Amino acid sequence: MNFDFFKNSQRSGVELTVFAAVAIIIFILAVIKVLPMFGKVEKTYFENTLKNIRLVINIHAGTQLLKGQPDQLIDLVNGNPFSLVNQKHLPATYKGELNSPDYQKIDGYSWFFDTFDHTLVYVIENHDYFSSLGIKSSNIKFKLILKFADKDKNGVFNKGLDTIQGLLLIPQDHIEWLEN
What we know:
alpha+beta, 1 helix, 7 strands, elongated
């Protein structure tokens, strides 16, 4: 292969223009193929972190139920699910507990617990690959709630009547990762 392409002063301007055009087209095609991968990488990171925190919640809830201490789970409702995780196993992007922060000032890929509205929040980096009810969103919020057998079918946990079954981490909005 001859790497002296640009050194040869005999080359015409047309050849250089064609070479530049081909290089630009190859670059654009590469970018078109690579950009959607950022959304897929973020989706994978988000889903894996969510699965891990839900696993920790289920293990903790199951342990309390097996110990015969289901009332211990009531104290965790609306609490920070990451408080159940060993500090050394927290995601590197976990920012801790924040009180009603300006979400725009928090880096993408970050998790934090908003103490104002008692939600676990994930800040989205690649907005073009996520929507909530068809609207592009900058974050996803979750709440920790009590799972119980609602014996009187009123939708409210009644201590002494309803049976605690565990904890659930539920999204506060519809979550949709877009495939581009």
